[in-house]
Design brief:
This protein is mainly α. The chain is built from 14 helices and two strands. A two-stranded antiparallel ribbon has the order 1-2. It is elongated, with a radius of gyration of 22 Å.
């Protein structure tokens, strides 16, 4: 785990975030919420709203917003827009960049998006500054859309057969987000830049230990998993894009971040999360490793005398993921995001809460950005959907992605 570094908002970070505050929105948070509500709407297909896909779409919006904001108020390495426009309206640039990316990707919501955009523009005085801001936002959005991050592809359910090979269970649909494995990344060099070491050999002591752990703790009616662990495992069966962007919006309000710094914060968390999840999905379909349910039900075929078959074993989480086990998407997503928060604020010490769509109103409080990472690793095992090794290697992948983007794009923050 990387040590804390001096960040842009380290002084502001000393404010106690749990104190009640009056929510203060700017164009960045306004359009971030619109983006999240659009991407995660129940009417969206799984190819869009599932966690890996949602991460990519949120990054498209926030990347364009950051590119536009950075062109108007230059404070670091250019992104998407190489020229500087210091006289342009920052609000017009942000609203236009966000609107054009969301509208260009989700045209079915055009009427509502256009109404929100017109409302944003109406609050900005007419003149050359506003006009130039619209132009800058358009440039950033067009550049983002031209990069082709979302490319639909044919899905497959055939990944081979045999011990250790992931197979779609009978009655289960194919992974609708297979396209993420081949998506164009945002800041890292390629979708396979951070290849993991891969699964343990099936006859190894390490695999045996992971097997026995998840077999005991992750079973639907486990007698070794505590009620608290059961609740935590269920809590984390939620889409991280919604929760982490909501957390960033609270930070903006509670810390009174400027529009410029708000754009930077969302870019750091969402671009890192997307590049991490793209690399994870590429890694999943490179290793094609079976999940605990298949491993435990077919342990008599793995060549390991220390793993015992249970043909009726079922995980605690009843909505078994439709994609290979290794590595863990949620863990990498969480790690990249929390490392980005830590880089922005320059400290691991922060009190905040996270929510879950599974338990509306349930707020889990943490005192460090590293704490959710530790909890997610355990939660995926307690839910019976991951071996420990895929979580540990996913944490490493997420940290490597954030370290890379920090060095190549966001180092100026510090």
């Amino acid at each position: 785990m990387k040590t804390a570094r001096l960040g842009l908002a380290v002084v502001a970070a000393l404010v106690a975030l749990v104190l009640p505050t009056v929510a203060q929105a700017n164009e960045v948070t306004k359009w971030n919420e619109i983006a999240a509500n659009t991407v995660l709407a129940p009417t969206q297909p799984a190819t869009v709203s599932s966690p890996p896909a949602a991460g990519v779409f949120m990054a498209m919006v926030q990347g364009a917003v950051y590119g536009a904001a950075n062109a108007v108020d230059r404070h670091g390495k250019p992104y998407l827009v190489n020229r500087s426009f210091p006289k342009a309206s920052l609000d017009a640039a942000v609203a236009t960049a966000a609107f054009r990316v969301i509208d260009g990707t989700f045209s079915a919501q055009h009427a509502g998006l256009l109404a929100a955009y017109n409302s944003s523009l109406a609050a900005i005085p007419d003149g050359s500054s506003k006009d130039q801001g619209i132009d800058v936002g358009t440039m950033a959005a067009d550049a983002m859309l031209a990069q082709g991050h979302f490319t639909p592809m044919a899905m497959t359910c055939d990944f081979g057969s045999g011990p250790g090979v992931f197979q779609v269970l009978p009655g289960q649909a194919c992974d609708p987000t297979q396209w993420v494995a081949h998506a164009v990344p945002f800041l890292v060099q390629s979708a396979d830049q951070f290849r993991t070491a891969g699964p343990y050999p099936l006859n190894s002591d390490a695999y045996t230990a992971d097997f026995k752990e998840v077999k005991s703790l992750g079973k639907d009616n486990s007698t070794t998993r505590t009620p608290e662990q059961t609740h935590i495992a269920a809590f984390w069966q939620t889409n991280p894009a919604g929760g982490y962007n909501a957390l960033a919006r609270r930070f903006v309000a509670e810390q009174s971040l400027s529009t410029r710094d708000s754009a930077l914060l969302f870019a750091m968390i969402d671009l890192n999360a997307a590049d991490a999840i793209i690399n994870v999905w590429n890694d999943k379909y490179y290793w094609k490793f079976w999940r605990p349910i298949a491993a435990i039900r077919n342990a008599d075929t793995d060549g390991n005398p220390d793993t015992v078959k249970d043909g009726s074993w079922t995980p605690m989480f009843d909505g078994l993921p439709q994609y290979p086990d290794h590595p863990s998407g949620n863990t990498a997503y969480t790690t990249a995001t929390m490392d980005a928060f830590r880089s922005f604020f320059g400290t691991d010490d922060m009190t905040f809460y996270l929510t879950s769509s599974r338990f509306p109103g349930d707020q889990h409080y943490f005192d460090h950005f590293s704490d959710p990472i530790k909890q997610v690793i355990e939660a995926r095992i307690w839910a019976g959907i991951h071996f420990r090794n895929p979580d540990v290697q996913a944490e490493e992948l997420g940290s490597e992605v954030e370290a890379y983007t920090h060095e190549h794009q966001f180092a100026f923050v510090h």
